Amino acid sequence: MGVREDSRFGKQICVLSEDLKGTLEPNILYSVELKPMHKANGYVVVAATPVLFQAHVETVIVPKTLYQVTVTFGNKKIFFDPKDGKSVMSRTIDGVLEILKGRKDIKYKEGVITDYLNQARALVRRMESDGFIYTGDRHQGRNSMKEKPVVGIATDGAHSAKERLTRFRAVDLSSGKELFSKAIGNWTNNIGEFLGIVTAVKYILEHPGTPHTIYSDSITGITWYNNRQTASSRTCPALQKAEIFLKVMEARIVDIEVLYWDKHLWGEIPADFRK
Predict the structure, then answer these.
(1) What rounded mean pLDDT belongs to the chain?
(2) CB 20, CB 34: distance < 8 Å
(3) Which residues contact 124 (CB under 8 A, 6 or more apart)?
């Protein structure tokens, strides 16, 4: 173990001393002190210290395609990839942070973590400015699944071309109670989604004690909310009023989260009009 097949030193039998058994971790390179065995051809490991590697933190952005922060040390590379990460850990800032904190082989680890956090947060801001949604650090540990939210407000918008009607509504996730349902005439689905979010924000302000978390399955609606500005080509009075409201109330709504409802994990959003 620990020697490549083509090494000129060859493999040697090494066993841990009783004091070291259960203390060494896998996937960590150790500098060890060896003593020859008395009655066998091999060595006893009597001391082991993790080898500390200089780490390099780098941001890689290909607009609309690739968003990554990598932390490279030794022969290892850890990825923060909020757009296309293959695991829950790699898709969240906190997930990668947990991995880094657990490593024992990074030199000046606190400084590396600070550098990583700064670059990861800047990456998320850039990704969101490019129109993507970062679903947030709802990470709950290495072995847990992302749990279906049960607290907050779920919103949905819908448009019927046949009825020439755009609607939006909201449901309390805890009780399943409908909080509001409105129709605004012949507009678009995206306008309905956005107005559902904004009306939920107003509901939170008007009802103290309401959780400050809103869920939507509309990336467009969430992006418009985060930007405090829509990108609709339609001149809709309700849309214009909503934009003004968000800008005027900025100081009061800064702690209200609008998060993406992941239908692949949790099914249709509870406020869905087809329910």
Answers:
(1) 87
(2) no
(3) 82, 93, 134
User: Residue 29: how many CA atoms within 13 Å on its side-chain side?
Assistant: 11
Sheet harboring 257-260: ordered strands across?
178-183, 165-172, 153-160, 213-216, 257-260
pLDDT score at 269: 96
Q: What is the mean pLDDT of residues 175-197?
A: 95
CA distance 79 to 91: 9
Residue 150 CA to residue 170 CA, distance in Å, equals 14
Closest C-alpha among 166, 120, 158, 128 to residue 258: 128
HSE-CB of 258 using CA atoms within 13 angstroms: 29
The residue type found at 218 is: S
Query: Nearest to residue 54, comparing CAs of 7, 121, 115?
Result: 115
**DSSP E strands, 212-256:** 213-216
Q: Give residues with Cβ within 8 angstroms of 59, minimum separation 6.
A: 68, 69, 119, 122, 123
Closest CA to 114 of 127, 101, 124: 101
Query: Does position 169 have pLDDT exceeding 80, yes or no?
Result: yes
Q: How many other CB atoms are there within 10 angstroms of residue 232's CB atom? A: 14
* C-beta separation of 167 from 178 below 8 A: no
> How many other C-beta atoms are found inside a 10 Å radius of the C-beta of residue 36?
9
Return d(Cα 55, Cα 91) in angstroms, integer: 20
Contact 127, 64 (CB under 8 A): no
What is the pTM (predicted TM-score) of this model? 0.52
In this prediction, residue 238 carries a pLDDT of: 94
